[in-house]
Each structure stands twice: as C-alpha cells, then as structure tokens.
Amino acid sequence: MKVIEVENLTKKFGSFTAVDNISFSVEKGEIFGFLGANGAGKTTAMRMLCGLLSPTSGKGVVAGYDILHDSEKVKASIGYMSQKFALYEDLKVWENIRLYAGIYGVSEKETRERTQLLLAELGFEKERNSLVKSLPLGWRQKLAFSVSIFHNPSIVFLDEPTGGVDPVTRRQFWEMIYQASERGITVFVTTHYMDEAEYCNRVSIMVDGRIDALDSPASLRKEFGAADMDEVFRKLARKSKNNGL
Amino acid sequence: MNPVSKDNFTVTHALSCKNISRSYGKVKALGNISFDVEPGEIFGVIGPDGAGKSTLFRILTTLLLPDSGSASVEGFDVVSDYKKIRKIVGYMPGRFSLYQDLTVEENLRIFATLFNTTIEENYYLIKDIYSQIEPFKKRMAGALSGGMKQKLALSCALIHKPSILFLDEPTTGIDPVSRKELWEMLRKLKSQGITIIVSTPYMDEASLCDRIALIQNGEFLKIDTPKAIVESFGRRLISVKGDNMGLLLKRLREIPGVISCFAFGDSHHVTTERDGNSADSLTADSLRFALEKQGHTNIEITPVEANIEDCFMELIAR
User: Could you report the predicted ipTM of this complex, rounded to two decimals?
Assistant: First the structure.
C-alpha cells in the first residue's frame, strides 16, 4: 500500500523553481530518507507533502488525501516534528502530550491512559510535571517524537530530528523510529548525518529541485561505486549548479 | 599592558583557561574547565547541544562572566582586559547575528569600520570565502541561503584580521558538502597563522582539528589529538554486518561479554573487554560462533579501529 504518491510535483517562486517535477512513492511502514544539500528543495517539497504549501503543478496524495484539495485531511492524518520546533518549552511534559493529543482529536480518557504508558516506556515517569525546557535536548527530542505519533498517524515527517543530539541518544532515537515503522507508521525523515541515511529502507537525494537518485542505501552505494552514503552524497551534490549557495 | 608570560621560560599560549565554572541559576553549564590552546592551532570543542560549548565561547570572547576561574586570550585576562581581547578576536556565534536588513556588502563594511579598518586593507584574508558571495553583494543578508549566510558571517568575523578566531558551531544544519568546504577554508586560515577555536556537534569533524576536547554536561571528558584519543579507546571494537540488522542489534546486546552495541551506518559496532581473560571474553571468532548458532546468516565480522564517536560513547558511559 502506498502512503505517499507524488507525480510531477513542482513548486515555483517567481522565476525560481524550488521543486522541479519530482515523482516518487513511499510504501506503508517504510523508513524513507529524504536527503539533499541546503537549498536543494527538501523543505519546500516537505511543506507541500504536509499540506502547508500548494504545488504550482503536479499531483500528490498523502495518507489517501490529495495535498491540494484535501490539505486539511492530510494535516489530520500525519505527524510532524522538527529539530527547531517540536514542543512548548514552557509547558510541562504531560501538558504537551495533552495539548497535541487534543489537537489531533484523541479522547481525554485515551490520552490519560496512554500518557502513563508512554512515560513508562520512555522512563520519564519522574519528569511528568517537569517543564520541557528543563529537559536535556536528547530527552526532548525523544518525547517530541512520541508526541508526534501519539495520534497514530499513518505517516510521520521528521525534519532533522537528531541535529545536535549526542551519539548515544541519536541511536536510541533511531531505535524508536524502527519501532514506529514496525507498528506500520511510515517514516519520512531528513538528516545531515550520512550514517543515518544507512538506517533508511530507501533514500532519495535532491539536487537543484530534482530527485537525482532514489534507492536503498546498498543499491546507491553500488550504483555510484561509493564506500558509504557520504561519498554517494558528495558525488551527487557536486553536480549542483548552485554550489551550496 | 603587555601580554603576560612573555619571558624566555614560559610559552605564551594563544588561550589559557583555568578552572572556569559557570551556572545559570541551578543549572550548571560549565564545571571546572581548564585547557590551553597554542598559537596557530585548530582546537575543536566537540559535544552535543546543551553540553556547554556556547557558554564557554561566550566567556572566552568576553561576552559572559565566569562564576569562578580565570582565562586569558593572547595573554589578556577575559575579565580585566576585555576591551583588548575584543580587538583581537573574531567571533562567529552559533545563531546568525548579522544585520538582516543590510546588504552583504554593508554588513562587511560595518564590521570593517567598527574595527577601524577597511574591506580593501584585509581583503586578501577573506578573498577565498567572500569572492563566492560577492556576486550577491547588493542582496539583503536576510535573503541569503544558509550556506551564503555562513560565508558572510565568517567574512565579517575575519575582516579585522583577528589573531584568534572563535567559531561556534559553524557547520550545524549545513549539508556534508558545504561542511567540507568550510573546513577547507579553516585549514587555509590556519596556514595564515590564525588560531582557531571551533565547536561542533559532528564527531566526524574531530579529525580535521589539531587537538580536540570532548565535552558533555559542562565538563571536558578528554583533551588530546584526535589520533591519541582514538588510540586510547579502552575496549575491543568489532564491526558486525548481516541479514536483518534490526534483529541482529537486539541479539548482539544479549550475548554475554558484549558491553555495548550500537548501529554505525551500514554495520553495528560491538564493544567487548580488550584483554579480558574470563570465559565471557569475546573475540571476533567467538562472536561469529554465537551468532551463527542463533541462526543469523551472511554474518560479516571485522575488528575495527574506534572513531571519535565510539570514544565519545565509551567516555559518557563511564
């Protein structure tokens, strides 16, 4: 079953084409890595898939809904977290959970029961009443991820979720991603850590608004004759006309 | 006042930091940090967000007072000689801090003028970096892409020809290719004699520094050359690949003698006692045997050398 289907999706800002005719699909439960250099068009593409930005042309269906005509239904069916903003720092841990659960329409009773369960799973029971700003970054990111999938979305978008996180927590975070994927949640993730690209089932690499490569990490390494994903990335990004500008 | 310790018996450090501590209310940001940086070195402060990197940089650039301890930059005390230090350091904060509503060229000119110099006078120093954004010099700084902002910020931090440059997370949020470019620029600046103190959460950048400090929870875990840190890794490290990497990770952790097991790109890194003599002591061979007995297929086992990330993970587990 396909959870994301994109055909010839394009976004132009004036004369600048940020996303240039991209087509791809993502299967249910897949961990899909969405890579590209700064300015390659990742954020613009992701905003369109989340129903936050209308495409200039082309078509996209996310979680069964058209991103142009049913963008509100798209928003209700997905989860989202980013490195920059995920939780309200001046709310307590349980208040953040309740807020997001409420926004996504999870009943109060279910929220109460599952909050206990979630905090136990994370080993955060003692932090239930702590303000989020008092938590270490790694804990915050783990909590933010749990909150982003609390309403059981069919797909979760993660925008650089592990930036600046310590190496142990970064790996624990990926183990949480695997668990979500085993539960059938599709994971769409961007990262600048090339070792994390290896943890994805498939990876796409954007260059100047296009998707220039899309395959499993092992196949991409083979295709580009590269030792690791870092080398694949460098070989592709070198083709860019923008040169990181 | 002349820099201290300029006699024949003591070496002048570019930077010297003794027992610096700093708290914000109840939160201890830095605890007893001591280290020296030699002239012309690239010194990396490496650790995750929240480890205390920015607090340290702000103290060393005289923007924040330490609670206790002392530090000097080019022989000048960070508290009593702060005005002198500000003239000789370049500082690029982690957050983009230029004037968004001024053009690229105007930003650079302001910094040059503030330090009583001109763009033309020190142009040679920023040429490699600035020439890449010069075609856009009439563009507002706020309208630049991330990579361009970084190049402008670095140009502004360099235009007064500082003797020591502080770069707080210059590569955060920057893609791997632009990161490499930035490090190449730093090597060039080093060759011009500028001392560079740089912080980063990316452990793979450690090897590009002459010496590094690994920082976590406000404390230095270790200070040394990247090579020496890697060589001092206290355990045996084994890389394991096979079918079904997810299950393999769980099973590896259950094998007696495995101290830790984490995913590292396309393989798992397993640590065991280096010279253990107990029955639990694992070697590459006994690990293979244990996995094959469990029915794992296509197992590839290779003893490997630790990288900085392995070392950091071992140090924080202690």
Answer: 0.84
